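Give me the 3D structure for Protein GrpE.
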Amino acid sequence: MTHSYDESENQGRGPEEPVVVRDRRRVDPQTGQVRPPGPAHAAPDPDEAPVEHAGPSLGESIVDDSVSVVSDVEKELAERTADLQRLQAEYANYRKRVERDREAVVIGAKATVVNDLLPLLDDLERADQHGDLTGAFKAVGDKLISGLQRAGLESFGAEGEPFDPSVHEAVQHNTSPDVAGPTVTVVMRRGYRFGDRVLRAALVGVTDHEPGAATGDPSVGGELPLGGGVDEQQQ
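Predicted structure for Protein GrpE (235 residues):
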């Protein structure tokens, strides 16, 4: 039995719903980009213009603008590094200068104290020359001199030294053929220096070189020969 199409059968139905196709692929086949995760991915709208991801066209620059920003940052970093190095060098020089000034102040203070003790050293030296520096008095004097020498005190001025006007004060002058040049032959007061500073010059007597007297010719001068005068010799 042939079934005939009856339009009355479809009168009670509504319009048919369109078929929806959902694209669940993670990679977009047109752009090649990974799609964000989601329950479903709708198909691309055919009316929407496709996103082009092609490379740069001919003549287009491929330099990124961020490169210039990085260069500026590196330049500023180099300037700050140079400033820091210069500051460190200035600070190192400042520390050296302060340390040098501090040492100069300490040496100056020591030299002032030692300079006040020089008359006492002169008394000890004179007592030693006269034989009065004995016993406990000599022990105390030796300890005092040793302590000052360890602190930096140095004496100068001895017989036989070449005369040096920067450290010797000549108060007596003689000449002699026994010396080759100006020489200290008498020490009246010893001199002292503390480090590079001369505290007191030495009072000395200086002897300069004197050429020896020329010997005379006996045929020219001197006494006449014994045996009479010239007339007696002719006879």
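The CA atoms of residues 32 and 79 lie 45 Å apart. Let me know if you want a second pass.
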